[in-house]
Amino acid sequence: GDSVTQMEGPVTLSEEAFLTINCTYTATGYPSLFWYVQYPGEGLQLLLKATKADDKGSNKGFEATYRKETTSFHLEKGSVQVSDSAVYFCALSDPRSGNEKLTFGTGTRLTIIP
Amino acid sequence: KAGVTQTPRYLIKTRGQQVTLSCSPISGHRSVSWYQQTPGQGLQFLFEYFSETQRNKGNFPGRFSGRQFSNSRSEMNVSTLELGDSALYLCASSPWTSGSETQYFGPGTRLLVL
């Protein structure tokens, strides 16, 4: 079945550092790929998404490129802020499945120190 | 538009009891999905409803059930609660117009089983 493997955390960075959180996937077809973020005590918020190969999703300074050849969707940000501290989830869905099921990675806890 | 709302936000139950959680999707959204989030298992898909029909179900025992009403509001029920059912239960809605839709999550219901 479909699966998502995400970089283990926790990750601790200094403010203004460069961020990469690795995400790879296994899927039989051509999934849609998502990054969701969860702030303490809250539900999940969509950060960005990409629906086909070579698409780049971007939002709030974060970027991720759908790489079919490496089955990856790594999250990057050039300069992190304290407010980026949260748990980040990589996820996929199968557009051919006829339903909206999301398969999630384990999540990566990110802490940014001033 | 108002976001996805879930009630109650917090719940404490004892083993053997049953519980019903409610989710109101974003207006116009017809698909509602439920997820269980625990520290050990991460985010796991429970089920998805569309137009009052269950479209997909995750790998959970029959104690977990759900339904969707004609106004797209959804409820999930857990009978004969076990300690391991303690979790954050997240509801998500999407418009379901072409597949690969963004799912919008509610804040969750935190269930504690004693």
Mean pLDDT of chain B: 93
Largest interface: A-B, 25 and 26 residues
Q: In percent, how helical is the residue content of chain A?
A: under 10%
Strand segment count of chain A: 12
Helix/strand/pairing class of chain A, anyone?
Answer: mainly beta
Which outline of chain B best applies? globular
For the largest beta-sheet of chain A, the strand count, sense and barrel status come to: 6 strands, mixed
- The percent range for strand residues of chain A is over 45%
Structure description:
- The complex is a heterodimer of chains A (114) and B (114).
- Chain A contains no helices and 12 strands.
- With 114 residues, chain A is mainly beta.
- In chain A, the strands form 3 sheets. In chain A, strands 2, 5, 6, 10, 11 and 12 form a 6-stranded mixed β-sheet that branches.
- Chain B has 114 residues and is an all-beta fold.
- Helices cover 0% and strands 53% of the residues of chain B.
- The model of chain B has no long low-confidence stretch (mean pLDDT 93).
- The A-B interface holds A 32, 34, 36, 42-46, 49, 51, 89, 93, 95-107 and B 4, 31, 33, 35, 42-43, 45, 48, 50, 55-56, 58, 90, 92, 94, 96, 99-108.
Annotation keywords:
heterodimer, A: 114 residues, mainly beta, 4-stranded antiparallel β-sheet, 0% helix, globular, B: 114 residues, 7-stranded mixed β-sheet
Short description:
The complex is a heterodimer of chains A (114) and B (114). Chain A is mainly beta and 114 residues long.
